[in-house]
Amino acid sequence: MLHVHIISRKQAKALGMKRYFTGEPCPKGHVCERSMWRECLQCKYEKDRKWKRDNADRNKAYQQAYQERNRQYFVDYNRFSPRADAARKRRVKLTKAGTLNIDDPLFMARNKARMKHLRQLAKQYEEWTGIKFEVDHIVPIIDPNVCGLHWYGNWQLIPMKLNRLKRGVITHELAA
Ligand SMILES: [Zn+2]
Asked: Rounded distance, CA 150 to CA 111, Å?
């Protein structure tokens, strides 16, 4: 976490921050931010993940209860967010053009098969080159400017490092 500046708990607290970072490793050796309760965030993440694994049923029930409680929020979000709106418009446009049809089981099967194929290909590439590849959305799904769709016309295999670099530098021209 090189981008995190060293800041003591006291300083962070004075600034009203929720985390601090001393650069000192935790007892498990993570050099990571700490919460105001002095908990290493990597340890917390691992602990939470373990809890979710060990308590899968309770976790599922909890998630469902959470969604139930906030149902209206999710409904509104999906209906009114600009991102969801942009995705909907693109989906309608592509569906009209006949390139995308999520109601067609054959299309969805093809979509799934392509993803499986690309993932296998990514593994093959990695064996050949020693570089990790992953499936990339050419027009990103999550981006402040554009909204891509999850279908095979929008997928490509690129090295993972490039994919990470690409994030946040997309332009409007690319989305057109
Ligand atoms: Zn730790």
From this structure: 9
Quick one: pLDDT at residue 120? 93
**Residue 48 Cα, ligand 1 centroid: separation in angstroms?**
12
Find the 109 Cα to ligand 1 centroid distance in Å.
43
- Encoded tokens for 99: 């390139």
pLDDT value, residue 2 = 47
Choose among 124, 119, 123, 150: nearest CA to 137.
Answer: 150
Name the token pair of 165.
Answer: 């670099």
This prediction's pTM: 0.43
> Which of the residues in the chain have pLDDT under 50?
1-2, 168, 170-176
* Distance in angstroms (rounded) separating the CA atoms of residues 124 and 118: 10
**Ligand 1 centroid to residue 49 C-alpha, Å:** 14
Residues, CB-to-ion distance under 5 Å, ligand 1: 26, 28, 30, 40, 42-43
Q: How many Cα atoms within 13 Å fall on the side-chain side of residue 33?
A: 14
